[in-house]
Amino acid sequence: MKPTLEEIALRANTSRSTVSRAFSRPDLLNPKTVEQILAIAEEIGYRPNNMARALSTGRTGNIGLLVPYIANPFFPPLIKAIQQNADAHDLCLFLGSSGESAARENTLFQRLASQTDGIIVASTRLSEAQVRAHAKRHPITLINRDIVGLPRVLIDTQAAVTDAIGFLIESGHRDIAYLSGPKESWSNQQRLEAAGAACRRADVRFEVIQLSEPSFEGGEKAAEEAVAAEATVILAFDDLTAQGAHARLSAMGIVVPREMSLIGCDDALPAMTYPALSTLSGLSLEAGRHALKLLQDAIEHRESVQDMKVVLGARFVRRDTTGSAPSRSRR
Known about the structure:
Strand content: 15-25%
């Protein structure tokens, strides 16, 4: 005979509903109670029946995660954090990557909605109207998109960008180029606004170079434009494009940071580059943990979703790709 919830409840000296909640919403119980129930379940070989749970509760035990570009090093730590926390709550994670296409993201949204209880959407490229339309039909939580009334986790980089620009100006730089990411990106808008404002206050030249794509190759192409514009600093949309820019600068014989300073965003792989990349801390692990908690709340209270917002503050991380301005740029 297969082990049952009733058997676990009897051994744990608790109710069947408490045992059920230990598998479906362990965050609502005392951690010691959850630990005891899971230990008993493991001992007797109990495995939750997700199909039965779906029939009795109307929930699948599945959640979705949509990202715009899975090859971007910012997203693997985010995915890992959500996966680990989903496992701890006995949830199955379905992953979709839109390839920076709003149309594909919209299609993935529709497909995942029929198979999941809720969806975490990271750095969506959809319009606000499209996101709100999906949210009316299915519980969602946003990462790095600030839409009032929807659960969201925001990594605020504006203060970190301001600090980075301040350091560069103190180091003598007067010609700063920003490699701008997708126009639909909330993170890009934040960084662009903060960098532009800091440069205007200091009366230094601020050159905006639109990336052809937010990729290593896009960073390579944009680096050539930054050199042609006689910038002495490249502030890149993210670490991936910064690495592409670094590769192209090296191929052109331009030494970083002696002849060009370089800063990325997200702190995804900078310590693995040589020289180590200066960047803005990414906080993707923290964002993933908070996003799953908000999504669970949205699923649990679907009819009365609150305006829940978690804001994480990034910081400027100075490493080896930033230094004093070359003498030609001093005025």
